[in-house]
UniProtKB/TrEMBL annotation:
This is Aminotransferase class V-fold PLP-dependent enzyme. Residues 65-368 form the Aminotransferase class V domain. The keyword Transferase applies. SUPFAM superfamilies: PLP-dependent transferases (SSF53383). Coiled coil: none annotated. The keyword Transferase applies. InterPro entries: Aminotrans_V_dom, PyrdxlP-dep_Trfase, PyrdxlP-dep_Trfase_major, PyrdxlP-dep_Trfase_small. Keywords: Aminotransferase, Pyridoxal phosphate, Transferase. It comes from Fibrella forsythiae. GO terms for molecular function: transaminase activity. PANTHER family: BLR3095 PROTEIN, CYSTEINE DESULFURASE.
């Protein structure tokens, strides 16, 4: 049975997806909780009658969301948070400002992680050409365990010739954990920027901005922050102060809540990372949903989520290994996203389809099936996965 670690109990009653569905696939998309769905329904109802809407209503929801996200990542300044629609947008801000990085020189490198999510790869194609930079990819070792060797290779690749490092907290396909504190320290030593994709970790794993000290953190909300699709959050450090935004949204300018004076065009941006907000970032329907989701995650607490998922899968993982599957040792991965490497010559996609036919939802990613539990999962879900693979 699940040990109730750190007082976090199963939250299945907060979710309405079918009782017989064994959903172990939060890394693809989180189910909306009752609270998040209700926030969206309430927001739609409010919009049926816009009487009384004030200019400040265009900004207030975003202010709350920034404060909550700052709390989640231990960022003392909520003004460093920007509201974005997708990872591609957040990384494009980094690419747009990379040419203005102090000390940037032709021939320097952008260091990437092997088999990374496409949005973390495509973002650098254009800037690497225009600035005459090279892309250096640090591939995953061929065998497990991989975490220690992979981290050592990444650190070795970060040299004074490095302009930018793009790294997640864990690998989106295999769950391998990266030592962002050590990577961040090495980046600071050589003068490189560090951009972190937190989509598969922030919300489910503790993230400490002040310890890691990245230059940028970019997160989509619909996975481990358990919010709506097409909305995300980014945090930009001092390297981006005074930088160039992707678009010149009117809401991002000073005094833009004074609608009666909008024809008095304002050259000055609002403080911090406000200039990097996507246009129409109000999202009257989705912003209340994201606020509810962030409150929910802060209540769950990422550390307690990790303990819950660890306990949930503790008895199952050794059984999977006895069946010929391979899993990164505990010290080299998170507990909420598990790359379960399929036996040699097996087809991960065929296995995932066979599991779905048994009402068990996981993802096929590369050489593994990706199992991603959360606090709505039960022992029954874990056992259903095991029995289906047997």
């Amino acid at each position: 049975m699940i040990q109730q670690q750190l007082d976090l109990y199963c939250q299945r009653s907060q979710y309405t997806y079918p009782a017989d569905a064994h959903y172990l696939n939060c890394a693809t998309r989180a189910p909306l909780s009752k609270a998040v769905a209700q926030a969206g329904l309430d927001a739609i109802h409010v919009q049926t009658n816009p009487m009384g809407l004030t200019p400040d209503d265009f900004f207030s929801g975003g202010i709350l969301v920034r404060q909550l996200f700052a709390q989640l990542i231990n960022q003392p300044d909520p003004n460093r948070i920007a509201i974005i629609p997708a990872i591609s947008y957040g990384m494009a801000v980094v690419a747009r400002n990379l040419p203005n990085k102090p000390g940037l020189q032709a021939g320097q490198r952008i260091v990437l992680i092997g088999s990374e999510f496409p949005s973390d790869v495509y973002a650098w194609d254009r800037v690497s050409v225009t600035e005459k930079l090279t892309i250096h990819t640090v591939d995953m070792p061929d065998t497990l365990p991989a975490a220690d060797a992979w981290n050592e290779a990444i650190l070795a690749a970060i040299t004074p010739e490095t302009a930018l490092v793009v790294a997640p907290m864990i690998h989106w396909m295999y769950g391998t954990r990266f030592d962002l504190e050590a990577i961040g320290q090495r980046c600071r030593e050589v003068g490189a920027w560090l951009a972190v994709d937190g989509t598969q970790s922030v919300g489910a794993m503790p993230f400490d901005w002040q310890r890691i000290q990245p230059d940028a953190l970019v997160c989509a909300s619909y996975k481990w922050m358990m919010g709506p699709y097409s909305q995300g959050l980014a945090c930009y450090g001092p390297a981006f102060d005074g930088g160039i935004p992707l678009e010149e949204a009117w809401m991002n300018r000073l005094d833009s809540n004074q609608f009666h004076r909008l024809d008095q065009y304002q050259p000055t941006y609002r403080p911090g990372a406000y200039r990097y907000n996507v246009g129409e970032h109000t999202h009257f329907t989705q912003m209340p949903m994201l606020e509810a989701a962030l409150r929910q995650i802060i209540d769950y607490q990422p550390e307690r989520i990790q303990h819950y998922c660890r306990s949930l899968m503790a008895d199952v993982l050794p059984e999977l290994e006895s069946l010929g599957y391979q899993i990164e040792p505990e010290t080299g991965r998170g507990h909420h996203l598990l790359g379960v490497w399929v036996p040699k010559n097996a087809d991960s996609m065929a296995i995932s389809r066979a599991l779905l036919a048994r009402n068990v939802s996981v993802s096929a990613r590369g050489r593994a099936i990706r199992v991603s539990p959360h606090v709505y999962n039960t022992d029954t879900d874990a056992q259903a996965l095991l029995e289906a693979l047997r």
